[in-house]
Design goal:
Helix content is 45%, strand content 15%. With 211 residues, the protein is of the alpha/beta class. It folds into 3 domains: 113 residues, Rossmann fold; 34 residues, Double Stranded RNA Binding Domain (2-Layer Sandwich), CATH 3.30.160; 57 residues, no CATH class. A 5-stranded parallel sheet has the order 3-2-1-4-5, sandwiched between helices. Strand 2, helix 2 and strand 3 form a beta-alpha-beta unit. Helix 5 packs across helix 8. The longest helix is centred in the last third of the chain and has 18 residues. It is elongated. The N and C termini lie far apart (52 Å). The relative contact order is 0.10. The model has no long low-confidence stretch (mean pLDDT 93).
Amino acid sequence: MKAYPVFFDLTQRPCVVIGGGVVAERKVAGLVEAGATVTIISPDLTRSLQRQAESGVVGYRARRYQSGDLSGFFLAFTATGDAHVDTLIFAEGRATGVLVNSADDPARCDFFLPAVIRRGDLAIAVSTGGSSPALARVMREELQAMVGEDYTLLMEIAAAVRREARSHSRVFTGDQWTSALKEPTFRQYVRAGQRDAAVVRLRMVLGLEEQ
């Protein structure tokens, strides 16, 4: 299957996780971090999920999956460990237009969850299309060594200077931005954590400030 890479804005979007074990914990954690409105459907929960349900971080329906449970949700995640139930959930998703991800079951997935590296607002996703999650994790670990924490500062500076340029109706091509962000002295300042010097240098390279 040829997957189409995309990032969803899940802020306050209703998402459901069906299952209450350790796999469901990981799904819920990612959704909560993304700002989604999460509901769990499961007769039992891990202690961590129970605490989140009791504190109101997530909604909770203490029962097994029933037909119609996907109604009103944007995304659905199955982590029941029961292939028959997962098949029913996937079929309901296809019938109702709700996208479904079935844990460890690529054949019953409308989308896959990549291994992600985050550096501030910068996100790098690695996916094997569900064929080898372990390889995706290995690739993430290797890329983490290459993409250091200085990329958080790099992202912040690039975004701030871009906003400044747009506020002054200055438009730069993709090639101009690429050249500026690779400029050796600018990157040296970023790696050293010298934010102010890096901002000045980037503005100079782009012609926003006289040299």
